[in-house]
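So, can you check what follows?
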Amino acid sequence: MEAKRRLRLIASILALLVGLAGGFLVRQLVEGEETDDAELAAIREARTVLAQEEDRHQVLLAQNDELEARKKSLLSRLEDFDDASAVLAEMRQFALLSGMTDVEGSGIRISLDDRLDYDPLTDPIESVIHDSTINYVLNLLWSAGARAISFNGVRLTAISEVSCVGPTILCYGIRQMPPYLIEAIGPEEEMKNALETDSYLLYLTQDKIGVRLAILREHQMRLPSFSRTQDYLPYIDLLRTP
């Protein structure tokens, strides 16, 4: 009888433990599903917001193109007046020099990227692209005869702003992400040779550092005007005539 009681007691304890374990498991599964549902809902909401912003961006681009077309149409009408033709020709020249017009021509397309699988604990700091790296390449291109340059689709001007805040590179205050694309219109061979023979870039692209650099010649490319990608008024307002 004593043995049977012990067996019943043990069986009861085991049943209780199994019940508790089962309840705990069910609770964990329910909580896990609730967490997953919340994360999925957040992802769906973020995707919806992104889609809305992309649609809004496309609408704004279309409106900008329409306004550009209307501006060109109005300016072309003014050319019929002798008094305005010289002023318009001078305005177009200044717009071209200041980067306020789209430009076309031959040049090179450069891709700069961090070291593959960069590890901050073992890899040198130069393995990550910094604003100094971008500005160094830009200066090489200008020195080699570049006539127009864009950085990640943003046209650069005489008041170009490429800076760094922590690990983030900013161009005119807009966050940029690698791989960084630099497009330059100008003498293809001279610009390409300036990059490929530069000692600092050769140092960065060696296996020990691992910066990834790719250069592609383009016989025809188009760079956007600064006004298509940025609002130039805050920068122009900083200028004053003496």
Observations:
- The radius of gyration is 30 Å.
- The CA atoms of residues 31 and 37 lie 10 Å apart.
- The chain is about 55% helix and 20% strand.
